[in-house]
Specification:
Helix content is 39%, strand content 22%. The protein is globular. It folds into 3 domains: 303 residues, Polyphosphate kinase middle domain (polyphosphate kinase like); 171 residues, Endonuclease Chain A (Endonuclease, Chain A), CATH 3.30.870; 174 residues, Endonuclease Chain A (Endonuclease, Chain A, 2-Layer Sandwich), CATH 3.30.870.
C-alpha cells in the first residue's frame, strides 16, 4: 500500500529531540556530577557535528530556491528558523543545567572558578602557569580594518577582545586569541585549600593575563568574550580520474577546514557594538544561525573533565567480562569458534577477544588469509597492528579501508598507507558507495581442508569505542555465511561483478527488499488473525518507505515495538496509523549502538543483527550487512537482552508524537530496572552458572 502523505517527523527536528535526551542525562540528579559535565560535553559535540553536517546540508538546499521544497519535502528556510528556535531553547536549558552543576560541585568542595574569584595565592599560581605553560601556545591577532579579517578555524574557540589604548584619544582596537585546547588541557587544576579543590578553565587563565600580552603594544583589555564559528563539513570530492582516492580525500579534508560558516556562537553578555563589529567582519547576520550562548564554548572538552579522586563523582563501571566460552586458556579462540557460534556484546564483554582472535590468526601456521573492512579504527590501533603482524608472518591480508568515514578520514588515510607499506593489499571499496559493514573472514587450511572463521558485527573495529558503545559481534565458522562474505569481498575488489547472496541481507542490493518481504509476511499473518509481531532496535529510523511499511503493518494489526536511540521520524500514538506501535529510546552511560531485527514469522522467528539503520543512506547508498542468527543459544541471548531493554524503567524514554522524552517510570512497588546494568548482570550470571556447572562436573569426576 502506497501513501502520498503520512505522519512523519522531520529528521533534523527528531535528531534535536535525541540530543535533548543527552541533555536530560546532564540534568539527571542520579547521574554522578562529573559524568553530568561529560554529558554536557557530549551534547555540545553532538550539536557541533549537527551544524557541520545536517544544518550545512539544509543551508545548501536554500540555494535551490523554489525547487528546494520539492526536493527536500519542506521549505529549508522555514526549517532553519525552526531549528534555530529549538537550539536556542536547548542552549538556555544547557546554561541553567551547567549553573546547577556548579552549585552541586561546590557543595562537594569542588569549585570551578573564574579570574574574578581568585585568591592572592591563586593569582600568583595562575600568573606563573600562564608564563611557564601557556603563553608559548598563544598567537594573538590584532584586527586591522585595512587588512582582510583573520581566518577563523572550524572546531576552535576564540577569545574576542576589545582593547583600549594607554594613550588618550587613540582609537580602540579588537583582537582574537585562539584558545589552545588541542595543545594544552582546557582545565587547570589549582592548588587545593584543605578539602577544597579548585579548577579553572584555560579561557579564564588567558582572560586574567591578557594585559601582559597587549601592554607592550600600548593597549589594555577592556572586554573579553568567547566566540566560536562552525563551518560546513561536507566533502566535495574531486572527479579528476588521474588522481587516486587518497589524493582526492586528502584534498577534500583540507578544503573542509575552509568550509562556509553555518553557525556563530557568542557570549550573550557581549555588548552590541562588539557583536555588530564581529558579525559584519564575518559577513553574517543574526539570521545566519547566530546563537547567543554562555561564558564558555566548545564544551566538548568537558568530556575530558579531570577526575579529582572522589569515586562518587564518576561512574564506577565494572570490569569487562571474558566470554564464558573464551576464558579457557588451553584452547584458542579459533578452536572455540570451530565448535560453536559466539556472540560478544560490548562493553560487557572484553574487546580483547577480537584482538586475541586476530593475533592468533596472524601467527597460526594453518591460517592462509585475512580479509577485513575498516571504517573507524583507533589512533593506535591494535587491530591494524595485528593485521601488519599477519603480513609479516606470510599471511595474505586484504583490507578495505573506507576513506570517507566522516571526521575519521585523516586517521584512515594514515592506516591505509601504513598497511600498504607493510605489504597488505589495501582497497578503497566502491565508487559512490560507502562501505559501512563490519566484517572479516579468516581462511585456514587444516588437513587439506579449508575452514573459514567469520565476523559480522554492529560496531567498528575500534578498541577505544568498544568501551563506551554497546555493540554485537557474531563469530562463526558457518560455511554458508563465509561463502557470502567471500562474495562480498569479491564485489569490493571487482566492482563490476555483481553478486547474489543466499544467507546475508546485503545493502544496497537486497536488504531493503528483504525487510519489506519480512514485514509483508507479518501483515499476511495479522490479516489471517494469526500472531504477528516485529521488534526492531536501531540508532535511527528515518527512511520514508520503511516507515510507511510499518504504518501499513500497524494498520493490519501487527504488534510493533521499536527501540531507537537517535532520530525517529515515525510518529507513535496517531489513531489509524500507529495504534499498534510502541517506541522507546535508551540513553545512559554507554551509547546504544547495536542493531537487532526480530520478526515473529509465524512462530519460526527470524532474528538478525546488522551494521545498518533504517535510513535511505544505509539501505540504498552504503554497503551494509545483516546476518541471520541460527544458534539457538545466541537467539535466546538476543531475545533475553531485548526483553531486558523493554523491561527497563530507568534511563528509558517513551517516544511519543509530541517528542517530549518522558521517562518510562517504575510503578509503585515495582523493581527499578536499569537496562545497561541488567545486561552486564545477565552475562555475569551466565558465566557464574557455567562455572558452577563446571565445578560440579569436576567434583563428580573426582568422586568417581
Amino acid at each position: 500500500m502506497k501513501y502520498k502523505s503520512f505522519p512523519y517527523i522531520n529528521r533534523e527536528l527528531s535528531w534535536l529531540s535525541f540530543n535533548e535526551r543527552v541533555l536530560q542525562e546532564a540534568a539527571d540528579p542520579t547521574t554522578p556530577l562529573i559524568e553530568r559535565l561529560k554529558f554536557l560535553g557530549i551534547f555540545s559535540n553532538n550539536r557541533d557535528e549537527f551544524y557541520r553536517v545536517r544544518v550545512a546540508t539544509v543551508k545548501r538546499l536554500t540555494k535551490l530556491g523554489k525547487k528546494a521544497a520539492q526536493v527536500y519535502g519542506e521549505d529549508p528556510k522555514e526549517l532553519l528558523t525552526r531549528l534555530q528556535r529549538k537550539v536556542i531553547e536547548q542552549q538556555n536549558n544547557f546554561e541553567q543545567i551547567y549553573q546547577e552543576i556548579l552549585v552541586e560541585l561546590a557543595a562537594r568542595n569542588v569549585f570551578i572558578i573564574n579570574e574574578r574569584q581568585l585568591t592572592s595565592t591563586q593569582r600568583i599560581f595562575v600568573s606563573e602557569y600562564f608564563n611557564n605553560e601557556l603563553v608559548t601556545n598563544l598567537f594573538p591577532v590584532m584586527i586591522d580594518d585595512s587588512k582582510p579579517f583573520p581566518y577563523m578555524k572550524d572546531k576552535a574557540s576564540y577569545m574576542y577582545l576589545k582593547l583600549e589604548s594607554n594613550v588618550s584619544g587613540k582609537k580602540d582596537k579588537y583582537a582574537l586569541i585562539e584558545i589552545p585546547s588541542q595543545s594544552v588541557s582546557r582545565f587547570v587544576v589549582l592548588p587545593s585549600h584543605g578539602e577544597k579543590r579548585y579548577i579553572m578553565l584555560v579561557d579564564d587563565v588567558i582572560r586574567f593575563n591578557t594585559d601582559q600580552i597587549f601592554e607592550v603594544f600600548g593597549y589594555r583589555t577592556r572586554a573579553a568574550f568567547n566566540i566560536k564559528l562552525t563551518r560546513d563539513a561536507e566533502l566535495d570530492i574531486d572527479n579528476d580520474v588521474s588522481k587516486s582516492m587518497i589524493e582526492k580525500i586528502s584534498k577534500s579534508v583540507k578544503a573542509r577546514k575552509q568550509g562556509q560558516p553555518v553557525r556563530f556562537v557568542y557570549d550573550a553578555a557581549m555588548p552590541d557594538d562588539m557583536l555588530k563589529y564581529i558579525m559584519k567582519k564575518l559577513g553574517m547576520s543574526k539570521k545566519d544561525n547566530a546563537i547567543p550562548g554562555g561564558r564558555y564554548h566548545n564544551f566538548k572538552n568537558f568530556i575530558n573533565f579531570p577526575n579529582l579522586g572522589d569515586k562518587n563523582l564518576v561512574y564506577n563501571n565494572p570490569p569487562a567480562l571474558q566470554h564464558k566460552d573464551l576464558e579457557n586458556k588451553a584452547s584458542t579462540v579459533l578452536k572455540v569458534i570451530a565448535q560453536k557460534d559466539i556472540l560478544l556484546h560490548y562493553p560487557y564483554h572484553t574487546y580483547n577477544h577480537i584482538i586475541d582472535l586476530l593475533r592468533e590468526a596472524s601467527i597460526d601456521p594453518s591460517v592462509e588469509s585475512i580479509k577485513i573492512t575498516l571504517y573507524r579504527v583507533a589512533d593506535s590501533s591494535k587491530i591494524a597492528n595485528a593485521l601488519i603482524n599477519a603480513v609479516k608472518n606470510g599471511k595474505k591480508v586484504t583490507v578495505l579501508v573506507e576513506l570517507q568515514a566522516r571526521f575519521d578520514e585523516e586517521n584512515n588515510i594514515y592506516w591505509a598507507n601504513k598497511l600498504q607499506e607493510e605489504g597488505a593489499r589495501v582497497i578503497y571499496g566502491v565508487a559512490g558507495l560507502k562501505v559501512h559493514s563490519k566484517l572479516f573472514v579468516i581462511t585456514a587450511r587444516e588437513k587439506g581442508k579449508e575452514i573459514h572463521y567469520s565476523h559480522i558485527g554492529t560496531g567498528n573495529f575500534n578498541e577505544k569505542t568498544s568501551k563506551v558503545y554497546t555493540d554485537f559481534s557474531l563469530l562463526t565458522a558457518n560455511k554458508e555465511i563465509a561463502g557470502d562474505l567471500h562474495r562480498i569481498f569479491d564485489f569490493y575488489e571487482n566492482n563490476f561483478k555483481l553478486q547474489s547472496f543466499k544467507h546475508l541481507l546485503v545493502a544496497p542490493f537486497f536488504m531493503r527488499e528483504s525487510f519489506v518481504q519480512l514485514i509483508n509476511k507479518e501483515i499476511k499473518f495479522a490479516k489471517s488473525k494469526k500472531p504477528a509481531e516485529i521488534t526492531l532496535k536501531m540508532n535511527s529510523l528515518v527512511d520514508k518507505e520503511m516507515i510507511a511499511k510499518l504504518y501499513e503493518a500497524s494498520r493490519a494489526g501487527v504488534k510493533i515495538t521499536l527501540i531507537v536511540r537517535g532520530a525517529c521520524s515515525l510518529v507513535t500514538e496517531i489513531e489509524g496509523w500507529s495504534d499498534n506501535i510502541r517506541a522507546y529510546s535508551i540513553v545512559d552511560k554507554y551509547l546504544e549502538h547495536a542493531r537487532v531485527f526480530i520478526f515473529h514469522n509465524g512462530g519460526n522467528e527470524k532474528i538478525f543483527i546488522s551494521s545498518a539503520d533504517w535510513m535511505s543512506r544505509n539501505l540504498d547508498n552504503r554497503s551494509e550487512v545483516a546476518v541471520p542468527i541460527h544458534s539457538p543459544e545466541i537467539r535466546k541471548q538476543l531475545k533475553d537482552l531485548i526483553n531486558i531493554q523493554l523491561s527497563g524503567n530507568t534511563k528509558v524514554r517513551i517516544l511519543d508524537h509530541r517528542q517530549e522524552n518522558q521517562y518510562k517510570r517504575a510503578k509503585p512497588g515495582e523493581k527499578k530496572i536499569r537496562v545497561q546494568e541488567e545486561s552486564y548482570n545477565y552475562f555475569k550470571k551466565e558465566k557464574e552458572q557455567q562455572q558452577s556447572h563446571s565445578n560440579t562436573k569436576t567434583k563428580q569426576l573426582i568422586h568417581n
